[in-house]
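WARN retry 2 of 3 for item q-0093 after timeout on previous attempt; input resubmitted unchanged.
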Amino acid sequence: LNVNGIEVIYNHVILVLKGVSLQVPQGQIAAILGGNGAGKTTTLRAISNLLKGERGEVTKGSIELRGERIENLSPADLVQRGVVQVMEGRHCFAHLTIEENLMTGSYTRKSKAEVAANLEKVYTYFPRLKTRRTSQAAYTSGGEQQMCAIGRALMTNPSVMLLDEPSMGLAPQIVEEVFEIVKDLNQKEKVT
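OK item q-0093 returned
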C-alpha cells in the first residue's frame, strides 16, 4: 500500500490533510499515531474511499495498492480487491445476531465453501463469538462487538485491513487479546 502526498478537503473548502505519505509493505503492520484531530481517521477513510459520505475528497496525490491506483474506486470495488476498514466505534448491526453480522462481511464472496471456511476461521480466532453467535449484537459486550467487527472484515478475505481505534473503550485484557489476534493474523494470513 502506497499513499503518496495526499490532500483531503471537506465541503470543498476545509483542508484536513496535506502531503500525507506512507508505505506499508505486504505482510507488515503499520500504525498511524497522533493526537485527536491529527487526521488519522481521515487518512484511513481516504484509503478505503469512505470520504464521500462525510463530504470529503482526495484532491491531490495518489493511493496505490500493489501498483494500481485506487483512490477513485468505490468502497465495494476496494473490498473486492482486498481492502477493508474496521471503523472506530465497533459498528455492528444491533438488531442482527453475531453470526448474521459476520455473514454481512461475506457479501462479495460467491463460493459457499469459502464463506463457510472463513466463518470457521473467524470462530477459531474469536471462540467467544461462536458461543454468542445467536445473540443480538446489541446485547453483547464492547469487546465482543469489536471482535465481531474485526471478524466481519475477515469474512472478506482481506489483504489490507484498516483498523481505526481498535482498542477504544475496551478493557485492557480485551485490548491485549485483540492485538494478539491481529499479530497472529499478520503472521498466518499475511494481512497488512
